[in-house]
Amino acid sequence: MSLWRSRGKGQERERRAALAGQASADAAVAMEAAQVATLEQVATVEGPEPPADKAPPPAPPDLTAAAFFDVDNTMMMGASIFHFARGLAARKYFTSSDLAGFAWQQVKFRIGGRENHDGIQTNREAALSFVAGRSVEEMVDVGEEIYDELMADKIWAGTRALAQMHLDAGQRVWLVTATPVELAAIIARRLGLTGALGTVAENVDGVYTGRLVGDLLHGRAKAHAVRALAAREGLNLRRCTAYSDSQNDVPMLSVVGTAVAVNPDSGLREVARARGWEVRDFRTGRKAAKIGVPSVLGAGAVAGAVAAGLAYRRRAA
């Protein structure tokens, strides 16, 4: 009986991961289309900009190749959702003690090495209860402010240069992260990237319902999202490149032709060595030690950060 139950749980996890990947790809395509439409509207109103003197011609678009970048400790020092939670706490969405408690629980969880899916699911449900009833527009506006305050100066220059290399080659570049897709899209837009794949929270008429579409975009869900986006965009995955710091992202790294470990954890470093993947490490001594704690917040961070906010609201009620 336990074997069948275990198989059933595994199939359900895979189903939710696939649903999360499909939803994330749908959201990424929709956001990219909306951004293009906005730019075209602005160009129509303001007219085309005069060409810059001696500006190099744009690289011809390479429509079948692309690059996919993880965010936390790959593109950004530490965990983006933790920086976002700090900003929310500063705005009284929840308290600093809630934030500290969340951080400590996540550190213990990650150091212990136990990814209990039932525990992640509980945190996920609590997290979505916190955003239920809030508007997407409100969270996007707050996310823009928090990016400027707490994230803009935490982008790894080396990783940013790698992304620019792909852009200069005429390739599109997407972020792939468990962070909410709206926040991921802000980061991508500020960096001049194509777009982002992230965790999708259901909304109706621009208001969050308190439910996720599928699951967190973590682990195998990221691989599903990359495959789904490739199918929609006509990408040849063998010509694509993926970058990450975490062993959890091996499924995503394995679906593309070129995988690069950036600031890798010990598990990914071993996998990269065994598979002959390139390793890029932009950390040095003291700086690497300073970002160690935020970087372990990974998988459950999306849910855990706002779950702390839910606890605060319940006490205040």
Structural class: alpha/beta
Number of helices: 13
Give the CATH level 1 class: Alpha Beta
Give the amount of beta strand, in percent.
Answer: 5-15%
> What radius of gyration results from the CA coordinates?
19 Å
How far apart, in Å, are the first and last alpha carbons?
43 Å
CATH homologous superfamily heading: HAD superfamily/HAD-like
Helix content: 55-70%
Number of strands: 8
Q: Strand arrangement, largest sheet?
A: 3-2-1-6-7-8
Low-confidence stretches: 108-116, 286-317
GO molecular function: hydrolase activity; metal ion binding
Organism: Prauserella marina
Pfam family, one: HAD
Keywords: Hydrolase, Magnesium, Metal-binding
Summarize the structure.
By secondary structure, the protein is of the alpha/beta class.
Please tag this protein with its features.
317 residues; 6-stranded parallel sheet; two-stranded antiparallel sheet; Rossmann fold; alpha/beta
Give your account of this protein's structure.
By secondary structure, the chain is α/β, with parallel strands linked by helices. The chain has a single domain, classed as Rossmann fold. It contains 13 helices and eight strands. The strands form two sheets. A six-stranded parallel sheet has the order 3-2-1-6-7-8, sandwiched between helices. The protein has a two-stranded antiparallel sheet with strand order 4-5. It starts with a helix and ends with a helix. This is HAD-superfamily subfamily IB hydrolase, TIGR01490. Keywords: Hydrolase, Magnesium, Metal-binding. Belongs to the HAD-like hydrolase superfamily. SerB family. One of its GO terms (molecular function) is metal ion binding.
